[in-house]
What we know:
Layout: H1 3-9, H2 16-24, E1 28-30, E2 33-34, E3 46-51, E4 54-60, E5 76-83
Antiparallel strand pairs: 1-2, 1-3, 3-4, 4-5
Helix pairs in contact: 1-2
Amino acid sequence: xxxxxxxxxxxxxxxxxxxxxxxxxxxxxxxxxxxxxxxxxxxxxxxxxxxxxxxxxxxxxxxxxxxxxxxxxxxxxxxxxxxxxxxxxxxxxx
Length: 94
């Protein structure tokens, strides 16, 4: 499954176009490597997503083309969530 679609279906990012933009800005990694929106996501992959000063790491548990809101959290497991100092984070409001 494409990275941008997984991020949208899992509701880690609200819209697929936003997921594409975030990937193009270099703020998403798959297994420690910078990922593009078209990168393939597999079960067992570890994703890191930078939201401003917060970096969220999740493990992909299963893939689905569509999902209901209450089931979206079952697609991944939260591994860790960390805050970065403001000067190390990308400021996406510029």
